[in-house]
Amino acid sequence: MPYYYYGIDWTYVYLVLPCLILSLWASAHVNSTFRRYSQQLSRRGITGADAAARVLAANGVRGVRIEHISGNLNDHYDPRTNVIRLSDNVYSSTSTAAIGVACHEAGHAVQYAQQYAPIKLRAAIIPVTNFGSKMAMPLILIGLLFSFMGSMSNFFIYLGIACFGLSLVFQLVTLPVEFNASRRALAAIEENGLLTPEEQAGARKTLTAAALTYVAATAAALAQLVRLLVLFGGRNRRND
Question: What b/e string do you get for 15-38 counting C-beta neighbours within 10 Å, with b at 16 or more?
């Protein structure tokens, strides 16, 4: 196969490795940005939990619980239980970073309450994309193991690639969901006076850094899909 040289898969080097580096940088960047603005305490002394509650109230959303969980930057909204879970550095912190993250998660709760279409689509496709991501590599391996079967072998390989493509679909749907939640958070912070204009920059930079992790994940999924197509896309021509 022309894509290998002395055991090195150059499609990985050219396509996947740059995205892996981007993902590592994005993860380090969001952590460093959060640490930086965790030191910037809001003058009004509002905690992350208080900020999330105010965003919910301002949007007329009721019945959402706000809970504390252990961990770092594992904050999330769980639509199944209608609970916003905020981590150690967010729940009781009065920092601009914590308020930004808490309002972002409240933004997700508001999205569900207002029937925001992209988040409904993402929730609907999660079971399919999870199944596809688990089955992609086994199907490709089955196709390779039974390469003597000709067209049947190609069927399993292309089915596996299609299943992997579902991961990219999920990432593409996730991007507008996350960007919209951040926009809602920043708008709520400004409209409800949760942070001063100077402090809003800290929340904005924290959420922007977090958004880059989703961009990096999408780029990585796209690179992996292109790699699979490059490696196996010409099997029919090679088999003829």
Answer: bbeebeebbeebeebbeebbebbb
